[in-house]
Design a protein that fits this description.
The chain is an alpha+beta fold. The chain has helices spanning 24-32, 40-43, 58-70, 73-83, 91-95, and strands at 4-9, 16-21, 48-54.
Amino acid sequence: MQPAIYILTNRSNKVLYVGVTASLVARLWIHSEHLNPKAFSARYNATKLVYYEAHVSMESAITREKQLKEGSRAAKVRLIQQANPQWRDLADDLHN
């Protein structure tokens, strides 16, 4: 397991959800199955992984998550556009 921050969106790429986890693959499964139906990601169907960063520790991942959450939507969009211009679902890459 490796700590990571990630950004999810919905099919129309209108919603952005920033999260942190110790296991990205496991966390993506939780989001995709809507295990917590009251959660933001479930309510807005944000299950498409469009950006992630691996970190060496949970502390650094949490610090980065806070930084991203404090930033503007435009800053998040720029980050995604630089790494994933087509806004592909990167979860497919993690499963291969």
